[in-house]
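User: Predict the structure for this protein chain, please.
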Amino acid sequence: MAPPDYNYEHFNVTFPAQYVAQVEINRPKKLNAFFEPMWLNLGAIFRRLSHDPDVRVVILTAAGDRAFTAGLDVLAASEGDILAQNGASDIDGARKATMIRRHIQEFQDEISTIEKCEKPVIAVLHGVSYGLAIDMTLCCDIRICAKDTRFSVREVEIGLAADIGTLSRLPHANMPMSWVKDVCLTAREFNAEEALGVGFVSGVYDTKATALERALELGRVLASKSPVAVQSTKEVLNYSRDHTVADGLNYIKVWNASALQTKDVPDAMMASLQKRKATFSKL
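Assistant: Here is the predicted structure, written as structure tokens:
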């Protein structure tokens, strides 16, 4: 069971193994489509998990058999205040633009909490994985999926350019730019086999259940290691992805000037020499 402070509507937060948290999107009757309270709650959850000393790795998944998420709940969005005010004739263009810009920024910030989470995040996708599914899981550190997963960068299909992260993160995700532009410009579906072939996911499994089993196995491995080492590695990898090699070398030098001053290093070395499993303090 989740502690009381992890009770958020449309999300189940559980702890299936020591130091492993699982965040399950829980709106299956609507194909786990998002409306505003959901992305606000998602951000709140990941901010808490990032600093929770009892959490060392997070698994992101979704309830039901049909979808990870169908993306944005278009009906709810069309009835929201922002679009309603956008159609008002008594508000000038600059003021409409300011409202929309702030709204997009808020949405971006909440989804980006997944990437900013200090702990590694493993995404487990299945079924319909459209639009926001791509935005969210590009923020994750490891992506795996069930073989029934159907992906789509869907926004062009509804008349807009994706603005929550996909168009910014996919070009940095080490996939062929021709393929990136293909799926973003056409909004076409691509399956699990294609996603594995281009490197969007690192593993495909027969069912959602077996994919979850693999994620939990990975989670246990990561949770067993020094949290100083794991969280430092995530931080430096993300920094180096967005900077030059020289910048990355300088960053890890400065970072490790403090991070190496940990008891975890001699404890890990001694455990290796004695052929036993090391245990590490909370961080």
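The radius of gyration is 20 Å.
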